[in-house]
Amino acid sequence: xxxxxIAVALILxxxxxxxxxxxxxxxxxxxxxxxxxxVDRVFAKRPRPxxxxxxxxxxxxQIKALVQRSGATLIVFDDDLSxxxxxxxxxxxxxxxxxxxxxxxxxxxxxxxxxEARTQVELAQLEYMLPRLTRAWTHLERQAGGIGxxxxxxxxxxxxxxxxxxxxxxxxxxxxxxxxxRETQRKSRNAVFSVALVGYTNAGKSTLFNRLTSGSADAAxxxxxxxxxxxxxxxxxxxxxxxxxxxVGFIRKLPHHLVASFRSTMEEAVAADLVLHVIxxxxxxxxxxxxxxxxVLRELGVVMDRVIEVYNKADRTDMFELRRKNAASVxxxxxxxxxxxxxxxxxxxxxxxEVIQLEIxxxxxxxxxxxxxxxxxxxxxxxxxxxxxxxxVPRDLLHLxxxxxxxxxxxxxxx
Length: 415
Ligand SMILES: Nc1nc2c(ncn2[C@@H]2O[C@H](COP(=O)(O)OP(=O)(O)OP(=O)(O)O)[C@@H](O)[C@H]2O)c(=O)[nH]1
Ligand SMILES: [Mg+2]
What we know:
4-stranded parallel beta sheet; Rossmann fold; binds magnesium ion
């Protein structure tokens, strides 16, 4: 889409000018991400959107004049438009009109790599397209029916709709299949501790992911640089094997079709033992972005107890001191305070298990090996008969060692 674009936003009564400008700045960034160049921006102050033209017919005429002056070939609106609004606006301005959802879908379509992401994006695009099909085909409606014209008598529009509906059904089936495989993989990874990075787009999730793993996720000053969930083994020391999961970012007014189709990807993150909500604390709208993130997490059913807020980009604000529970202030870019965050992650993991004392006979080498594999051994003493071991064991694996508990499964004191 190497196009010259006019970006349009409404200022409704509950919005201040500066907030509206921030929102438009975000839209511009989305447009640039899609490959467009913003040549003009338009605000329309209104009590409510106009049902026919969204901005009102006077404003629409002004936009038309701007189009002619700037040679723009596309107009992007910061809100979702009805099919009728798009039709009317295109008629007035004589250029292509898309809304926020259409733009985000375009970006996603250009980014999706994995089979799952591609399937999800196509599904979202078709669902977005379905109710908007009318305009292209209205001239074919009301075609005569009757015997001998079955199929032919069906309007082109209905035919197209049916093809799309069939395709949607197929994509949904395919996604279910992918999800089932994913579910099986997840179950087999049960013994692994998982940490998911979620948050607003451009907050620094992938940069943090690269810090916490020896991974090489794409980190870039672009919206939606990441579209495929990615996971890698943690590069820091943990009581048991730990994976870190990078995810697609959230955005204000995310098209709801996308939220639905990206659910399965997000569910992987939601099922994680620990969720790090990454927030760009240097962003003028960071409080809003935090709220958007939290709302999405709640909607996905994440219990807030499992969430740690990571105030990132603290190098820009120089606010590394954060006396808030379940939160850390870091710079993923410079690495500052990352150790503190890792301590928090480790502490959380330790809460998922217990420190116990075990007495394992020497000839039970397999048990000892298993213990070293899944647990954190604090102390190990050799006696004539057995190994006396003090170890942290994940709660769901305690049963494996029950038979060897030296003093029952009571948590032991460690000094
Ligand atoms: N100054 C500063 N910049 C950072 C920090 N962390 C990330 N960035 C920059 O912020 C931009 C976005 O970083 P990403 O890691 O790609 O962000 P993301 O959350 O993965 O974004 P999406 O995948 O697009 O949702 C990049 O230009 C990073 O270099 C930080 O701690 N300080
Ligand atoms: Mg990313």
